[in-house]
């Protein structure tokens, strides 16, 4: 089947409803193999799709996904429940990819980055072999597909980068490990870390070459832009991820409980274990919180697969071993309404991921009127938990002791101090990270290609 034949097939599917004919002239292919995951990256995807539908009525959005167990109706329903985003189903086609399992990191215990990246070529080929778009828009960071797609499909390449696959921070960590092993005079360890450093440098070169094929590059934060500009030799546009600040701004600041909320997928890099240790230390150093009515840590996040389920079980066991089971509650795969309800009751929002590229959960805390206690690195440090109008918007920490102390400081604010800081944080979030702000910058990048 030729490219034109496949285009006609897509349009026939869209126009199967005789009462809803679609005069499409452009097919925009969103390459997002985990579109049903329900995380911050998916909020960006679906907000972008909604904006495209509103701004460019002649554009059809094709979603390349590996979520074989979910129908179109189920995916769009989850988008509505999780993100409160309404989409026109008549302008969306889902192209299901059967080879997504090849990019699962659990398949590659060694040389994970390189093997995953090579596997993504298979996934990319399957995508454009099924439907060749006019524009290929990667929203998950599969840069190794760009030269390949550009060559075989001869289409424009757009990219929204949440997180560089490799960064100078990763290289620095390996270098520091190598220096430590030199001091310890461990030949085997030194050789291993030297080989790893060479591998990472070569991978970074290849990653930069592939990324340079992108015609339009958007990134989600100052930290990500710094790395992508350096690696890809580009000048990426910062388009902060969208947050539903309007609804969260409506939550009252009165009658908040000494509740700590953590909103994050149950992935290893989110470091939920540090959160549990920080709360345990908080209760040990400041035992008054044990008898404070309403005090608890609520962990809200989605579970994507068995790996996440196993991780959650280990966290539950850690809660018991730390002796804080009376003060910790899990909300797995919670609906958007449950999330908003929890944010409306809590006083503090907790975030512990090192070098989080952006941190949309932290923005949600601020918009909802919580005091953020976030990791002192990357997005939270450079873009989010910064002074606004010359006033503090939250706390930053980078150790268990630091998080425990910051949690205590945030929870100990007087009502007047809390409301002043929460109001300032809310104003900062609404001004810089709203859906309106995202849409304005995102659409500005697309108009010259679609109008």
From TrEMBL:
Residues folding into a coiled coil are none
What this chain does, per the record? GDP-Man:Man(3)GlcNAc(2)-PP-Dol alpha-1,2-mannosyltransferase that operates in the biosynthetic pathway of dolichol-linked oligosaccharides, the glycan precursors employed in protein asparagine (N)-glycosylation. The assembly of dolichol-linked oligosaccharides begins on the cytosolic side of the endoplasmic reticulum membrane and finishes in its lumen. The sequential addition of sugars to dolichol pyrophosphate produces dolichol-linked oligosaccharides containing fourteen sugars, including two GlcNAcs, nine mannoses and three glucoses.
Q: What is this protein called?
A: GDP-Man:Man(3)GlcNAc(2)-PP-Dol alpha-1,2-mannosyltransferase
Q: For this protein, what is the EC number?
A: 2.4.1.131
Question: What does the record say about its membrane topology?
Answer: Single-pass membrane protein
Organism expressing this protein natively: Phycomyces blakesleeanus (strain ATCC 8743b / DSM 1359 / FGSC 10004 / NBRC 33097 / NRRL 1555)
Reaction(s) this enzyme catalyzes, per UniProt: an alpha-D-Man-(1->3)-[alpha-D-Man-(1->6)]-beta-D-Man-(1->4)-beta-D-GlcNAc-(1->4)-alpha-D-GlcNAc-diphospho-di-trans,poly-cis-dolichol + 2 GDP-alpha-D-mannose = an alpha-D-Man-(1->2)-alpha-D-Man-(1->2)-alpha-D-Man-(1->3)-[alpha-D-Man-(1->6)]-beta-D-Man-(1->4)-beta-D-GlcNAc-(1->4)-alpha-D-GlcNAc-diphospho-di-trans,poly-cis-dolichol + 2 GDP + 2 H(+)
Q: Where is the Glycosyl transferase family domain?
A: 251-426
Instruction: Write the record's keywords in alphabetical order, separated by commas.
Output: Endoplasmic reticulum, Glycosyltransferase, Membrane, Transferase, Transmembrane, Transmembrane helix
């Amino acid at each position: 089947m030729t490219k034109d034949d496949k285009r006609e097939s897509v349009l026939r599917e869209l126009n199967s409803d005789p009462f809803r004919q679609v005069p499409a002239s452009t097919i925009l292919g969103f390459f997002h193999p985990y579109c049903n995951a329900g995380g911050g990256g998916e909020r960006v995807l679906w907000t972008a799709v909604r904006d495209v539908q509103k701004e460019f009525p002649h554009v059809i959005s094709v979603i390349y996904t590996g979520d074989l167990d979910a129908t179109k109706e189920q995916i769009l329903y989850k988008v509505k429940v999780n993100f409160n985003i309404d989409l026109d189903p008549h302008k969306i086609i889902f192209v299901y990819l059967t080879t997504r399992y090849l990019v699962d990191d659990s398949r590659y215990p060694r040389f994970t980055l390189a093997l995953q990246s090579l596997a993504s070529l298979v996934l990319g080929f399957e995508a454009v072999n099924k439907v060749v778009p006019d524009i290929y828009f990667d929203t998950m960071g599969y840069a190794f597909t760009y030269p390949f797609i550009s060559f075989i499909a001869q289409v424009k390449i757009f990219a929204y980068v949440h997180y560089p696959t490799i960064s100078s921070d990763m290289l620095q960590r390996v270098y520091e490990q190598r220096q430590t092993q030199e001091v310890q005079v461990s030949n085997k360890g030194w050789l291993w870390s030297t080989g790893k450093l060479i591998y990472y440098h070569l991978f970074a070169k290849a990653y930069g070459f592939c990324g340079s094929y992108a015609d339009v590059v958007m990134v989600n934060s100052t930290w990500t832009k710094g790395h992508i500009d350096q690696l890809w030799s580009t000048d990426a546009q910062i388009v902060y991820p969208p947050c539903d600040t309007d609804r969260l701004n409506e939550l009252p600041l009165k009658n908040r409980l000494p509740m700590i909320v953590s909103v994050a997928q149950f992935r290893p890099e989110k470091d939920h274990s540090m959160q549990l240790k920080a709360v345990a230390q908080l209760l040990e150093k400041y035992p008054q919180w044990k008898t404070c009515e309403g005090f608890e840590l609520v962990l809200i996040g989605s579970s994507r697969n068995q790996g996440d389920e196993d991780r959650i079980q280990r966290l539950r066991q850690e809660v018991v071993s730390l002796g804080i089971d009376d003060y910790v509650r899990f909300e797995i795969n919670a609906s958007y309404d449950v999330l908003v309800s929890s944010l409306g009751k809590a006083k503090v929002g907790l975030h512990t991921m090192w070098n989080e590229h952006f941190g949309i959960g932290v923005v949600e805390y601020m918009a909802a009127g919580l005091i953020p206690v976030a990791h002192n690195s990357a997005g939270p440090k450079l873009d989010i938990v910064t002074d606004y109008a010359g006033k503090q918007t939250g706390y930053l920490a980078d150790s268990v002791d630091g998080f425990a102390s910051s949690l205590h400081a945030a929870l100990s604010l007087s009502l007047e101090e809390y409301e002043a800081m929460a109001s300032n944080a809310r104003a900062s979030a609404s001004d810089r990270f709203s859906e309106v702000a995202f849409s304005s910058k995102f659409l500005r990048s697309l108009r010259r290609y679609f109008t």
